[in-house]
Amino acid sequence: MSKSIIGLSALVVVLIPVIGWAEELPKDAVPLTASEVRELYSGKSANWSRSRAYFAPDSTFLMHGKDKSWFGEGKWTVNGNEVCGKLKRTSVKDGKSNTGGDCWAWYRVGKKYMTFWSGEKDKKYGYYDSELKKMSAGDKVSRTVAELKKKSGS
């Protein structure tokens, strides 16, 4: 019995942070305009858990893995309240590449901004309000992408 309680306690401790940020979209949420979404991204860098990205004002989209094993180059677009980044991702080790992308839909609830990442599996409770904290002004990515590109021989 004590093993069951310890196991359940560990599971609760692991899930608390997930429950804290994954929410259902409130009924009073208002989709952002395309102009508002563009302003959130243009000229900004994102620092995510496994990668970094730069959304250039000219719609260039650059990205690299934090482990520096890959880089990506492409374009970002805005359609309604959704921003999408599409790119060609290249391995530094062998130069092999593939294409892919991600999208984020944006909403405002009062003064709070919420987003939904297209890679999220939970379509009902996958909304979160921490994305803006991962964004900062300026290009913190293109120099590393250029170095990785040179290293890969691309």
Fraction of residues in β-strands: 35-45%
Quickly count the helices.
Answer: 3
The largest sheet, given as strand count, sense and whether it forms a barrel, is: 9 strands, antiparallel
Low-confidence stretches: 1-20
Radius of gyration: 18 Å
What's the structural domain tally?
A: 1
The average pLDDT value, as a whole number, equals: 87
Span from first to last CA?
A: 58 Å
The count of DSSP E runs of length 2 or more, i.e. the number of strands, is: 9
Taken in chain order, the helices and strands follow as HEHEEEEEEEEH
Share of residues in helices: 25-40%
Give the overall form: elongated
The secondary-structure class comes to alpha+beta
Looking at this protein, list some descriptive labels.
154 residues, alpha+beta, 3 helices, 25% helix, disordered N terminus
Describe this structure in words.
This protein is of the alpha+beta class and 154 residues long. It has one domain (24-152). Helices cover 25% and strands 38% of the residues. It has 3 helices and 9 strands; from the N terminus they run H-E-H-E-E-E-E-E-E-E-E-H. The protein is elongated and about 50 Å long. The model is unreliable at 1-20 (pLDDT under 50).
SSE arrangement:
Layout: H1 2-21, E1 30-31, H2 34-41, E2 44-47, E3 51-55, E4 60-65, E5 70-79, E6 82-91, E7 97-109, E8 112-117, E9 135-137, H3 142-152
Antiparallel strand pairs: 1-7, 2-3, 2-9, 3-4, 4-5, 5-6, 6-7, 7-8
